[in-house]
């Protein structure tokens, strides 16, 4: 068995790959990045340890959050470097092949799909928008306490608090839907993802929108304006990230 296997970061056009200073791009573990070319396409790859990236080792490693973070950072750094030169289709994290011949076979077998993906994202970037339900301030006064019936008063106050929280949540959901519809009018495509748990998002507020948008430069300017305008909404707190390489839109299963 070979000491190394081939880790694939992304696919781009051969002409774009030719312009890259591959020696200046560092891959996983500090390994040098190189190009594997077939026809009009090129895969950006680097060697990785065969034992560490074996199927069995990967199953164990994918449960190691620190390992995942390190690999994801290195993967993204390579993709971002390629994206500065032109359209790039990022490959799924931890994609490895036994040798470069198998990588060329991938490029040949899926040439049409890669070409379509690269055309779809050409001149466009991905932006992420997250919306969180803003914590309600004040609100309607609870029913007046009845000194003669403290138990009933307590239940009435609790019911009023629950009703107020439910109304606030629904207002936030409705506002997030409106924001998504507005942004979708200036985006080429959009992807919605499940809301993140607060332990992952880093925010105490409930996430009510988690979406990615594919936009050109004009669309990016409009998207930023829409998000900034909607930050004034009382029911939402918005978070905008980007621009990113279009991870969400460079997949081969797009129509």
UniProtKB/TrEMBL annotation:
Coiled-coil spans are none
Tell me where in or outside the cell this protein is found.
Answer: Gas vesicle
Q: What is this protein called?
A: GvpL/GvpF family gas vesicle protein
**What broad class describes the main subcellular location of this protein?**
other
- Identify the species of origin: Pseudonocardia aurantiaca
Q: Which UniProt keywords apply?
A: Gas vesicle
Checking InterPro entries in the record gives: GvpL/GvpF
Domain of life according to the entry: Bacteria
* Segments passing through the bilayer: none
The family classification in the record reads:
Belongs to the gas vesicle GvpF/GvpL family.
